[in-house]
Amino acid sequence: MAREVTEALRAQIRDELPEVAAIRDAALAAAVVEAWALAIAWSSFGSIREIPPSGNPGQMTLTRGDQTDHIRGVTRLAMRMAEEMAALNPDLAVDHDIVVAGGLCHDVGKPWEFDPENRRRWEAAPRGVGLPSIRHPAYGVHLCLTVGLPEAVAHIAGAHSGEGELVVRSLEGTIVHLSDIGYWTMALAGGLIRPETVSQKYRRPISL
Ligand SMILES: [Fe+2]
After folding, report:
1. Which of 129, 134, 177, 179 pairs as cysteine with 77 (C-beta 3.0–4.6 A)?
2. Residues with Cβ within 5 Å of ion ligand 1?
3. How many domains does the chain have?
4. What is the rounded distance in angstroms from the CA atom of residue 127 to the CA atom of residue 123?
């Protein structure tokens, strides 16, 4: 299942996630590409576009598109929120590059959690190694640290979802978390989510 990361795969990732070009630090941009390339190479997916456009496997699935639409959407929302907040609050010490890299990497663990081969294995024996054995935030941290991404980006991958309720989120992590929640909430309000996939927490708006 695990393949080598090739130059062609890196180029494909840059094409699938054009917001990588908004990262000013070239080494950081390259590490973001490396994290996604490794995530794909170590899965049975050939590209990010092959991953279904869902929040969790089978849940909050967009009526059209693929996982790049979600990753790019969250990143763009996060960039705009950071920019607009900083424009009116000059004391807000928000790191632009970490917001973009964090937005792009927040779901880098999804190729693992969504992998059909992993799903089959876990569902066949849930008490073996768990179902899933590791959720995408934790696996995302593993990938981020493996490729040498900064701790600030690994934190965003690890804390963007429910796991983040157990820690204090960074400023950039808070922005990406809100963008992620906002993405799914707005998609649901706009009729972009398949009704049979709406997860429980989005059925009770008061809990958002
Ligand atoms: Fe997400």
Report:
1. 179
2. 107, 180
3. 1
4. 9
